[in-house]
Write a structure and sequence with these properties.
Blueprint (H helix, E strand, L loop, with lengths): L1 H17 L4 H16 L1 H29 L5 H17 L10
């Protein structure tokens, strides 16, 4: 999914940069992108995906921790703890989505 999204964004960027329509077409595309980003359905989907990502990342960390044990470098463990604490402190992440 991420690769498809990256491809579409790259395609759109290439179109904007290569088009002869100029500024008017760029502004039209920018307005359309803003409308899509502000759509409640898109925002809810992004928030749901972010929450699921957090859940899967937590499960993966626990699975790896169990298998690797104390061999996880302290720097990695400290980074994970700081990210968890930051996410729980204010209830929102860097993208404006709430945390569970």
């Amino acid at each position: 999914m991420r690769y498809k999204l990256t491809f579409v964004v790259g395609l759109a960027l290439g179109y904007v940069l290569g088009t002869r329509a100029g500024r008017e077409r760029y502004e039209q595309l920018k307005k359309s992108a803003r409308q899509v980003a502000q759509n409640p359905a898109v925002r809810n989907t992004a928030e749901t995906a972010a929450q699921q990502g957090r859940v899967y990342a937590g499960k993966a960390f626990h699975t790896v921790s169990e298998k690797v044990g104390d061999r996880v470098p302290d720097s990695v463990a400290a980074r994970v703890r700081s990210l968890r604490e930051r996410g729980q402190a204010d209830g929102a992440d860097d993208w404006g989505t709430s945390t569970p």
